[in-house]
Structure formats: structure tokens, C-alpha cells
Design brief:
Blueprint (H helix, E strand, L loop, with lengths): L15 E4 L9 H5 L10 H13 L4 E7 L5 E11 L2 H4 L1 E10 L8 H15 L4 E3 L7 H6 L17
Parallel strand pairs: 4-5
Antiparallel strand pairs: 1-2, 2-3, 3-4
Bound molecules: coenzyme A (COA).
Length: 160
């Protein structure tokens, strides 16, 4: 991250940023994630189970959302905190599953989400925060204060 990540952030009037809630299952959370990739049919029961798993491990899993003026989820983002042994028990953040509802794109919500998650990683004591993205999103993440840092390798067990 560059110094740019520490600039003051703001959302459009009436929009809010907060942690994911259980009730977001029926508040456009899954539909917003479908803008990013295939999600499949997630039952409320399965959502509840996953939400409990994330909540019980909230030192690791930190899913967040942005709501519009109507209180509907229009952006998603996950921060994962990894405690390592290297660098004197250093900690790093991983940003995952950034998505903005199609009709809400271009309002700097993605920028707000990424910078907010990066800021939370910094506050949690991380020495860096990293993410994977496709080539066509490099420019977006550069505007969020990131720089190209390496090459992603993958060994797929399933293809989505
Ligand atoms: C990529 C995405 C998150 C951007 O969110 P957004 O809210 O529309 O973007 P913002 O309004 O915050 O854009 C911030 C800046 O990045 C630029 N930008 C947005 N998408 C871009 C892209 N793909 N490439 C280059 N620049 C981009 C914007 O033009 C804006 O520039 P400006 O500050 O000069 O005006 C959103 O388009 C999206 O959800 N896409 C589908 C899912 C996805 O690809 N997620 C990322 C997975 S790694």
C-alpha cells in the first residue's frame, strides 16, 4: 500500500459501511456477490451456518458491506487476517470478494470498500495487505493505493 491509502474517505450521502449481518441474507448480499462470480443457490440455513463460522472466527473473517440510502446492500468485501510466524509473528491482511451492484458502480463505492478494508488491516497491525485480481481490474486497485506485487499461482481442484 502507498500513502494514498490513508486519505480521508467518504461515501455518497445516506450510504453506510458496516460489518455483515445475518439479516443481509435477504438484503441483496448474495445478489451483489453474483456481480463478481457464480454463487449458486445458497439456502438460508447454509448462510446461517457460514455466518456462525465467520462470527466465531471474527479475528480472521471480517466480511463487510456498503448499504445505499434505502438500506440495501450494494457492495461487498471480505478482509481475512492471517497471523504468521515470519517477520516476528507478523500479520497480513487478504482482501477478497469485492463487488459493487451494477447500478451502483462508478460512485466510488468499490474504492471506499477496498480502502476501508485496507485501513482495518493496518489498524489490526498488519504489515501489508494483499489481493488477487484480473488484469482488467489492475487500474481500479491502483486507484485504491495498491501496486502490482507478484504473480498469482493456482492449482485448481474444481473449476468455477
Ligand atoms: C471493480 C469494481 C469493484 C469497481 O467498483 P466501482 O465502485 O464501480 O469503482 P469506483 O467508482 O470506486 O472506481 C474508482 C476509480 O477506479 C476506476 N475504475 C473502476 N473500475 C476500473 C477498472 N476495471 N479498471 C480501471 N479503473 C477502474 C474508476 O474509473 C474510478 O476512477 P477515478 O477515481 O479516476 O474516477 C466494480 O466494477 C465491480 O464490482 N466489478 C465486478 C466485480 C469485480 O470485478 N470485482 C473485483 C474482483 S478482483
Amino acid at each position: 500500500m502507498t500513502q494514498e491509502s490513508t486519505i480521508q474517505l467518504s461515501l455518497p450521502e445516506g450510504y453506510t459501511f458496516r460489518k455483515l449481518k445475518l439479516t443481509d441474507y435477504s438484503n441483496n448480499y448474495i445478489e451483489t456477490l453474483k456481480v463478481l462470480t457464480t454463487v449458486g443457490n445458497i439456502s438460508e440455513e447454509n448462510f446461517n451456518k457460514l455466518f456462525q463460522e465467520w462470527s466465531q472466527n471474527s479475528h480472521i473473517y471480517q466480511p463487510h458491506v456498503i448499504l445505499n440510502k434505502e438500506g440495501v446492500v450494494v457492495s461487498t468485501g471480505m478482509l481475512l487476517l492471517e497471523s504468521k510466524l515470519i517477520h516476528e509473528c507478523g500479520k497480513i491482511g487478504h482482501i477478497e470478494d469485492i463487488s459493487v451492484a451494477k447500478e451502483e458502480q462508478g460512485k466510488k463505492l468499490g474504492n471506499y470498500m477496498v480502502k476501508s478494508l485496507a485501513s482495518l488491516a493496518e489498524q489490526a497491525g498488519c504489515y501489508k495487505v494483499i489481493l488477487d485480481c484480473s488484469d482488467h481490474n489492475v487500474g481500479f486497485y491502483e486507484k485504491c493505493g495498491f501496486e502490482v506485487g507478484g504473480v498469482e499461482m493456482v492449482h485448481r481442484f474444481f473449476r468455477y
